Amino acid sequence: MLGFVLIGLYACKKSSSKYNYFLSPVEGAKVASGSILTLKTDAGAGEFDSIKYFMDEKFLAKKADTQSVKVPTIDLPLGSRLLTAIIYNGSDSAELTTNIQLLPSKPPVQYSYKVINVYPHDISSYTQGLEYHDGIFYESDGVYGESSLRKVELKTGKVLKLLNIDARFFAEGLTVIGNRIIMITWREGVGFVYDKDTFNKLAEFPYTSGAEGWGLAFDGSHILNSDGTNNIYLLNKDSFLKEGTIEVYDNNGAVDSLNELEFIDGKIYANIYQTDKIAIIDPKTGAVEAYIDLTGILPATDYVDGVTDVLNGIAWDAKGRRLFVTGKKWNKLFEITLK
Questions:
Q1: Does 259 reside within a domain?
Q2: Residue 3 has pLDDT above 70, yes or no
Q3: Which of 47, 180, 206, 235 is most buried, with most CB under 10 Å away?
Q4: In angstroms, rounded to a whole number, what is the distance separating the alpha carbons of residues 152 and 302?
Q5: 64, 77 contact by CB (below 8 A)
Q6: Total domain count for the chain?
Q7: pLDDT of residue 235
Q8: How far apart are CA 324 and CA 335, in angstroms?
Q9: What separation, in Å, do the N-terminal and C-terminal C-alpha atoms of the chain show?
Q10: Is 5 among the domain residues?
């Protein structure tokens, strides 16, 4: 017993004389973007020659004393950042790590809505992707065995053209680029390219960017792609390979379940799956700048038990500057403005 006590005391004494942890910041700390981050370790408990500090393996500073290091965060990307301190003592070194979550400094603006016009929408469509081009909606409709690609008239909701998708595939988001329609599938790892006018299939491609295929939009240079996480991937518009990632956060943390996408006046609009909210995202930083709360837009009298599903579908008429929204198996499509 005495031997165990002595070993325990020795271990405690040895531990207290070593470099154990970051004093600042604490593990998992939420840090507002633009603030000054203070880095400091418990290195004062022992002798050392120098300390080198890193963020995500990028060198920040070197210190020969126990003074803290001040790091501006204004230009750093949002999200989880790994901090490392390597403490050198002769030929020996000790490595300490901690992490922070860098978040937007401002809470999102909160918008409600005003309905300008109401149009019919085909209740059979489990809306996955929605875009407006040249007076026509292009819509992808999901569910295994029921998926389709549609061309829809605005005023009547009439399906002008319909292509049934093979029952093996669950159709997901789409976007229109020139005379091409790009559409992805949910879990099948396949995407399709169709002629916008004829719906003839032009190509297939492997979908590899996200764990699943959810939403698509086009920002003029890249295809924007969601997969139900807080990531929006930047895909090459010709090869469909991933070329970058936008991590989306608000002032409280990661914003998950990003679904159908639309690119409007330099911002990304994203349905948040299974909610009545649309996030407005700065593509440069991934910060959510605003939320649109669409609670109550579909009247309770229009709900059909076992049929009507969640809000999903955003389309933008760039020429007429009109914003449209709908939902999965909704009987209405709405033109709205924000307030």
A1: yes
A2: no
A3: 235
A4: 21
A5: no
A6: 2
A7: 98
A8: 4
A9: 73
A10: no
Residue 4 covered by a domain: no
Nearest of 333, 332, 339, 335 to residue 323 by alpha carbon: 335
Return the beta strands (E) in 75-177 as ranges.
79-89, 92-103, 109-111, 113-120, 127-133, 136-141, 148-153, 159-164, 171-177
> What residues contact 301, with CB distance under 8 A and at least 6 apart?
none
Judge whether 197 lies within some domain: yes
Task: Say if CB 92 and CB 235 are below 8 A apart.
Answer: no
Number of Cα atoms under 13 Å in the Cβ half of residue 13: 6
Per the rule left: phi > 0, alpha: psi between -120 and 50, beta: everything else, 253 is left
Max CA pair span of the chain: 88
Please count the helices (runs of H) and the strands (runs of E) in the chain. Answer: 1, 31
Q: Is the pLDDT of residue 225 over 90?
A: yes
The pLDDT of residue 13 is above 50 = no
Domain span at residue 87? 18-103
pLDDT(52) > 50 = yes
Q: Which 3-state string (H, E, C) describes 178-189?
A: CCEEEEEECCCC
Please give the DSSP secondary-structure letter assigned to residue 168.
T
Instruction: Collapse the DSSP code of 159 into the 3-class scheme (helix H, G, I; strand E, B; otherwise coil) and give the result.
Output: strand
pLDDT of residue 108: 98
Cα dihedral sign for 159, 163, 165, 171?
negative
What's the predicted TM-score (pTM) here? 0.90
pLDDT tens string 126-181: 999 999 999 999 999 999 999 999 999 999 999 999 999 999 999 999 999 999 99
Of residues 256, 175, 268, the one with CA closest to residue 223: 175
From 75, 103, 131, give the residue that closes a domain. Answer: 103
Three-class secondary structure of residue 120 per DSSP: strand
Ramachandran quadrant class, 45 (left: phi over 0; alpha: psi -120 to 50; beta: rest): alpha
The answer to whether 263 and 291 have CB atoms below 8 angstroms apart is: no
